[in-house]
Amino acid sequence: MQLVIIAGGLGTRLRPLTLHRPKALVPLVDRPQIAHILDALPPSCDEVIVAVNYMFEQVRDFFRERQFGVAVRVVEEPVPLGTAGAIKSLQRWLNGPFAVYNGDVVDTIEFDRLVAAHEKAQGIATIAVWPVDDPSAYGVVAVEKGRITRFVEKPAKGEAPSNLVNAGRYVFEPRVLDLIEAGHAVSLEREVFPRLIEHGVFPYRYEGFWSDAGTLPNYLNAQRLLLDAGHAKISPDADVTAGSLRPPVYVAAGAYVEGRVGPHVVLGKACRIGRASLRNATLLEGVSVDDKAEVTASIIGAGAAIGEGAHVRDSILGDTVQVSPHATIVDERVTA
Ligand code: GTP
Predict the structure, then answer these.
(1) CA-CA to 186 of 20 to 30 Å: which in 2, 53, 54, 269?
(2) Cα–Cα dist 330/102, whole Å
């Protein structure tokens, strides 16, 4: 079965990281987000079609250089067509029932089980769902007698029909394409799903973990889940002998650590950490952190430098940002 990955969004909520790279290629535990999806596909997935608009060339070049054991076609949308418009624009490439994944979700879904559930239910669509404590930021489904009967996008607190949210993983019958208008932006979640209900839409639940990775807190949550699930690693080519690591952490090759790192920290290649303290954070490649600095709940862009005694919390720093010694950055988005 073919899998469409919709990965054409602007990723505004992860700016400034997404000003120079598409969200699909933002590293998550040292691998582009989209690579986590490709890694988990079984042989029964015989083709992946990636629908991209924003920064198409970067995604195309990435898949030219990297092999994943499955054929990958990267298709450019001339203009952003929304989550359903993107699928409609691929109609000529699709040749039967097909799966669709959002590009900015990491989880433990098993492709074969999702497909088997769809084949068994015989509806027009199967939508994977995941229970969350607070569904107000998500698309929520109402389920009655084993069928999805209603969709509520981002319900006000207390008005959600359930705690089950759309997990961004679907299988569709080809006739879904006839219910999406061509040539303009259409939202799968807001416009198409409600049209599908009378044709039979079934929920699919699975075990393990699930996280959206499209906002700072969700990205850090996704990183935490991956580290807890066995993605933690200290490269043999990193020098951590002078540091104090609190697992789980991921330290890439060429990194040098003197300070306290962890839990839930990812250091990209060639990061240099002085006698600083890092917790629940991602440092992309080549970041330096000087003595007595503290970084928590933040993503630090490639090549950034954090001066002595500086504090960075709940923030995203773009590539090459320089933070002055003793500066305090809280809940900010900083561009170089
Ligand atoms: P924000 O700007 O931060 O809201 O991010 P986003 O633009 O990526 O939107 P959102 O997180 O809602 O998108 C969910 C998924 O759909 C992501 O994998 C996006 O890349 C993808 N997506 C959103 N809009 C489009 C679109 O117009 N075309 C394509 N191909 N994919 C889209």
Answers:
(1) 2
(2) 30
Asked, colleague to colleague, whether 2-215 and 232-334 share their fold, the answer is: no
- Catalytic annotation, residues: 154
Cβ neighbors of 173 (< 8 A, separation 6 or more) are: 97, 123, 124, 125
pTM here is: 0.94
19 lines ligand 1 (CB under 6 A): no
Class (C level, CATH) for 2-215: alpha beta
Q: How far is the CA of 186 from the centre of ligand 1 (A)?
A: 12
User: Is there an atom of ligand 1 within 6 Å of 11 CB?
Assistant: yes
Tokens for 11, please give them: 């990723």
Q: Measured from the CB, is residue 77 less than 6 Å from ligand 1?
A: yes
Locate 237 and state its tokens.
């080519």
pLDDT tens per residue, range 250-286: 999 999 999 999 999 999 999 999 999 999 999 999 9
The CATH number assigned to the domain with range 232-334 reads: 2.160.10.10
